[in-house]
């Protein structure tokens, strides 16, 4: 590493702030991650939080639920206020500790057993084969947009037994809801996220009601 590169790395690590990410970071965040791991692997943010970039540190945190909490009710309150996004993300499996986490995990465990996953395999193989055939016919594709993003939508659709003809909105809902987890949001992103939660919940309630009548 040249002296200039070392200075640049120090500056990247020193100036990093999750609340003020620039376009260069979104275009290619990896130089910043490398600089943080080298010079500030446990980085104190201006708001007092800590940002970890070393695998072993992150692993240690996740394996110590007695010391570290996944609960986001306090952190998300000023970000979302009383809103569909707040209700959704603070009741999510990934943002909760036991005993709620344990109870919800048990409810979905049956759908994610080795046998259940194996049963999905033939449909997933057909899906991937079809996507690859489409890609070959097109000649050039965006691998994420056209190929990779289709797979989780179909998996979620299968797990929830969503009819194939009704799966169109699933990805946009997911992008809007998960996109609202970005550190800094504008009003448009918040509006999209809240609308997506409302529409998704409404759809699921309707789907459950239809199943109950079937």
- Judging from the principal axes of the Cα atoms, what is the shape? globular
Mean pLDDT: 92
The name of the CATH architecture of the largest domain is Orthogonal Bundle
Helix content: 55-70%
What is the CATH topology classification name of the largest domain? Answer: Cytochrome p450
- Tell me the distance between the termini: 66 Å
Would you kindly provide a written description of the structure presented here, covering whatever features stand out?
There is one protein chain. With 214 residues, the protein is mostly helical. It folds into two domains: 9-63, no CATH class; 72-212, Cytochrome P450 (Cytochrome p450). Helices cover 65% and strands 3% of the residues. It has helices at 3-15, 23-27, 30-39, 55-62, 73-80, 84-90, 100-109, 114-138, 143-148, 150-159, 170-179, 187-213, and strands at residues 42-44, 50-52. A two-stranded antiparallel sheet has the order 1-2. Strand 1 and strand 2 (50-52) form a beta hairpin. The relative contact order is 0.07.
Topology:
Blueprint: H1 3-15, H2 23-27, H3 30-39, E1 42-44, E2 50-52, H4 55-62, H5 73-80, H6 84-90, H7 100-109, H8 114-138, H9 143-148, H10 150-159, H11 170-179, H12 187-213
Antiparallel strand pairs: 1-2
Helix pairs in contact: 1-3, 5-6, 8-10, 11-12
Keywords:
Cytochrome p450, mainly alpha, 3% strand, 214 residues, two-stranded antiparallel sheet
């Amino acid at each position: 590493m040249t002296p200039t590169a070392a200075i640049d790395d120090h500056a990247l690590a020193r100036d990093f702030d999750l609340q003020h990410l620039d376009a260069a970071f979104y275009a290619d965040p990896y130089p910043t991650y490398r600089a943080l791991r080298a010079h500030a692997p446990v980085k104190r943010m201006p708001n007092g939080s800590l940002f970890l970039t070393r695998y072993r540190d992150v692993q240690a945190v996740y394996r110590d639920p007695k010391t570290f909490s996944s609960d986001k009710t306090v952190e998300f309150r000023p970000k979302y206020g009383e809103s569909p996004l707040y209700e959704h993300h603070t009741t999510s499996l990934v943002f909760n500790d036991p005993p709620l986490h344990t109870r919800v995990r048990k409810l979905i465990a049956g759908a994610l057993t080795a046998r259940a996953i194996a049963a999905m395999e033939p449909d997933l193989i057909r899906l991937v084969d079809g996507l690859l055939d489409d890609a070959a016919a097109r000649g050039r594709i965006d691998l994420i947009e056209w190929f990779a993003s289709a797979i989780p939508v179909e998996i979620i659709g299968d797990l929830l037994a969503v009819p194939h003809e009704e799966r169109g909105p699933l990805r946009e809902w997911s992008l809007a809801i998960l996109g609202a987890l970005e550190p800094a949001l504008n009003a448009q992103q918040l509006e999209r996220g809240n609308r997506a939660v409302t529409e998704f919940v409404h759809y699921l309630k309707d789907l459950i009601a239809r199943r109950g009548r079937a």
